Amino acid sequence: MRVRLVVAYDGRGFSGFAANVGVETVGGTLGAALERVLGHPVVLTCAGRTDAGVHAWGQVVSFDTTRQPLDVAALQRSLNRQCAPRIVVREADSVPDTFDARRSARARRYRYTVLNRPEPDPFLAATTWHVEAPLDLAAMRLACDPLVGEHDFSAFCRPPKVKPDVAPPRLVRRVLGAGWHDLGDGRLRFAIEASSFCHQMVRSVVGTLVEMGAGRKRAGEMRGILESRRRARAGQLAPAHGLCLWEVVYATDDTVVGG
Q1: Which of 136, 189, 229, 251 has the fewest CB atoms lying closer than 10 Å?
Q2: Where do the H-state alpha helices sit in the chain?
Q3: Is the model's pTM score more than 0.90?
Q4: Catalytically annotated residue among 51, 100, 136, 185
């Protein structure tokens, strides 16, 4: 039986999603809780392997279980008793064997929130990047235009480790949409949707856009940075805690999961 979970989590204190020996991760914690309930280990597949400190509202996870019959509603309650509030299973259901949380996904949507005002907010500190200097929202919006489409995002991705005699992975990604929204009270939200993302791509893009909003770079430089394929040309890496995997779009019927 294949099961799909929609999971939200506070990424602080976790060393990313993927299970890793010796450190606490979202996948490791969730997998251990599942094993206690099901009585056997499971292999988790997730829609997006979020980095350390990154949050999620609509992470999608799938796994197989030999436990039958299985009450998925009871499974959800049991997982939440064990893992909440840091990790919460928002939905749980059985799905066809053809469903795969990663391979079946058509697109992922991320949100990054910036608090742009002189004073910080203790109630937003865990989920927003506080930027004190005034930002030019128009410039940041203008700089988003070159990102849309299929490009090599090497300038915005952490260089992958390459083994000898193995060709480096392609960092071409297709961005379906990107833009800034003014939420009021100094809160600015960057939303981006792409077929997939490379390592640290969203945080690198946001860091570059904020430098453009602060006047340290010009919006017109974005296309040149993208085409250079050089990470040194882009801006700083935005802090992890402002980023959230918001929802996932699936290919079967353009179903949006998580939002």
Answers
A1: 251
A2: 26-38, 72-83, 137-142, 201-213, 222-228
A3: yes
A4: 51
